[in-house]
Design a protein that fits this description.
The complex is a heterodimer of chains A (about 150) and B (about 270). By secondary structure, chain A is α+β, with helices and mostly antiparallel strands. Chain A has a single domain, classed as Jelly Rolls. Helix content of chain A is about 35%, strand content about 25%. In chain A, the strands form 2 sheets. A 4-stranded antiparallel beta sheet of chain A has the order 1-8-3-6. The longest helix of chain A has 26 residues. By secondary structure, chain B is an alpha/beta fold. The relative contact order of chain B is 0.14. The chains are: A alpha+beta (about 150), B alpha/beta (about 270). At the A-B interface, helix 1, strand 5 and helix 5 of A face strand 10 and helix 4 of B. Chain A: This is Regulator. Chain A: It comes from Streptomyces dysideae. Chain B: Keywords: 2Fe-2S, Iron, Iron-sulfur, Metal-binding.
Chain lengths: ~150, ~270
């Protein structure tokens, strides 16, 4: 199974944990250009995209916040809610109309505390997502499409 | 095929990006044999040397187009060529994409950077015969929006799905940002009944081919175009050797089932 699909909640979480998580989800829809969170803000929610495209950006003074990654169907939006101090590391905005499952971070963290097995499963899932995104970011650092990224000069 | 450079006239020079141009060439006298998409020519810049370049367009007149990025002395010299200049070409060399083997099936084309150039004639052929192929998907990764070649043409391609993602967006970019493999989820194809054609930097090829295979594409239906240090282009010098494969003769287009293990060998 390719990583992008293996990391989706419906594959990454065992059925019982997935069902528990979805039980506390709320269906949400956002028009394009909706800012869901700002860098430095309190991370009190997270989302799983059902349809549409979402952009993560980073504040840079004097220019429009550059987009560092776009996310699509099945992707987890937000991991800062799981780790203290629960502060968003990036800003985020919908690019297209987005339908998503929205989760209350405090409620899910309480579920993780009350059921360690569920908590481990959620942490393992989010950890794998983080690992995948770290690998993607490192790959992009290689500048593979640059003049010398694909082989020797000739 | 000839091992002696044949003169070709530069009839048009189109800048693609800051460091990449497309040269349209017409034979001065007898043209070389017909090139298949995916094959390459050794393009000679007189006084500097020659480099292998895949064809980015094949004309019925015998004319060719090569998209060249200035990364070294020879390629920089070729990029400086103007209409009216004469270059030397020998070829055609190597294996083509063999798009015709995908007839009746979905097609997935994945290009990274200038890797789009060798795939362009394949894409145009697939789109020229929509009844012959299933859904045609084109996925493109680029460094920045300014590094995207053929960008105006891409918008007009009547594909089932065309996705473009960049590593570093500018302020005007409203498209995707991230690895090209991230677009595979949005492409519309039946993995068990598809062929894929992949060209770009080797790490991108490996990641894409593995992802496609993980989705259920048969490895022998994943064609990748590889690059090594091609010198003679006739299978004699061994510079382009990848284990038992001589990429100038057995490639540059090879099936993933033949190369996956070889690409995992560091010494190769």
């Amino acid at each position: 199974m390719p990583p992008s699909i293996a990391l989706r909640m419906n594959h990454a979480l065992p059925a019982e944990h997935r069902d528990r998580l979805l039980h506390v989800a709320r269906e949400a829809s956002f028009p394009p250009g909706t800012r869901l969170f700002e860098e430095g803000g309190h991370a009190d929610r997270f989302w799983i995209i059902r349809d549409g495209t979402f952009a993560l950006d980073l504040h840079v003074p004097g220019r429009r916040a550059p987009v560092v990654e776009t996310l699509g169907i099945g992707d987890l939006v937000g991991w800062s809610w799981l780790f203290e101090p629960y502060v968003w590391q990036l800003g985020g905005e919908t690019v297209t109309p987005v339908r998503a499952y929205e989760f209350d971070a405090v409620a899910v963290r309480l579920m993780c505390l009350s059921d360690p097995e569920f908590g481990r499963a959620v942490e393992h899932w989010v950890g794998r997502v983080l690992s995948h995104r770290l690998h993607a970011a490192r790959t992009r650092l290689l500048d593979l499409y640059g003049p010398y990224g694909s082989g020797g000069a000739r | 095929m000839t091992d002696v450079p044949v003169p070709y006239l530069v009839v048009d020079r189109r800048p693609e990006t800051a460091d990449t141009v497309t040269l349209r060439l017409e034979p001065v006298a007898e043209p070389l044999a017909d090139f298949a998409p995916g094959q390459f020519a050794m393009v000679h810049c007189f006084g500097r040397g020659e480099i292998p370049v895949s064809v980015s367009s094949v004309q019925a007149t015998g004319g060719l187009a090569h998209t060249i990025r200035a990364v070294g002395a020879v390629s920089a010299g070729l990029c400086e060529a103007r209409a009216g200049d004469v270059l030397g070409l020998r070829g055609p060399y190597g294996t083509g994409w063999e798009l015709e083997r995908a007839r009746g099936r979905d097609v997935v084309v994945v290009a990274g950077g200038i890797g789009l150039a060798p795939l362009r004639p394949l894409i145009l052929r697939a789109l020229a015969g929509p009844a012959a192929y299933g859904r045609v998907n084109v996925l493109i990764g680029a460094r920045t929006p300014a590094d995207l070649i053929d960008h105006k043409e891409i918008e007009r391609w009547p594909t089932t799905y065309t996705g473009v993602t960049v590593d570093r967006p500018d302020d005007a970019w409203r498209g995707d940002v991230g690895l090209v493999t991230g677009l595979l989820d949005r492409a519309d194809f039946a993995p068990a009944d598809s062929w894929a054609f992949v060209c770009g930097p080797e790490p991108m090829i490996r990641a894409t081919a593995r992802d496609l295979a993980d989705r259920g594409l048969r490895p022998d239906r994943i064609r990748v175009s590889l690059e090594r240090n091609m010198r003679c282009a006739t299978g004699h010098c061994g510079h382009c050797q990848l284990g038992p494969v001589l990429l100038c003769r057995d490639g540059p287009v090879v099936a993933w089932d033949r190369t996956e293990a070889l690409l995992a060998v560091r010494e190769l």
